[in-house]
Amino acid sequence: xxxxxxxxxxxxxxxxxxxxxxxxxxxxxxxxxxxxxxxxxxxxxxxxxxxxxxxxxxxxxxxxxxxxxxxxxxxxxxxxxxxxxxxxxxxxxxxxxxxxxxxxxxxxxxxxxxxxxxxxxxxxxxxxxxxxxxxxxxxxxxxxxxxxxxxxxxxxxxxxxxxxxxxxxxxxxxxxxxxxxxxxxxxxxxxxxxxxxxxxxxxxxxxxxxxxxx
Length: 214
Fold this sequence. Notes:
Layout: H1 9-21, H2 49-76, H3 80-106, H4 115-131, H5 134-158, H6 164-186, H7 194-211
Helix pairs in contact: 2-3, 2-4, 2-5, 2-7, 3-6, 4-5, 5-6
């Protein structure tokens, strides 16, 4: 049966490519969790809309990168349980992606035009991390999520006080990202070398400073 076949890395690469070209990253029956923003009425001051949109655009691109990272790691992970963990994390990151996209529409703005570039870069990094071995792949996840939590806390401080909808989204995202980091650590994540951690931080800064505007 096709569902029981042990796919090679090449097989999985071709499958992923087909899904990406078709615009699909999750099973069609996957149900996205309702956005936390639904709990709040729209009360943001018009003078703060542009700034809030810039912040949410950065967060949307961050989730694009997360999708790519997990899909790349899933492709090259050696152990099936690690691949399954990456798949589950990707599903939750997809929730974040949809929430941020919806919020940008509500704010009358757009997603970043640089998303294809950041997706491609992150997918390649994820695949390389997977090839380095599962403990390093998990270490990459743990470090990424730690940096994301710091980034989300910074944005929670910068959001306009009146933007309760965006705040609710980022707060739930922070909970999920922290869970992903803890899961990776519990699964045997290795601590990444300092130069790698710094390089990851630099890439994050570049993404943040560009996608806020574009």
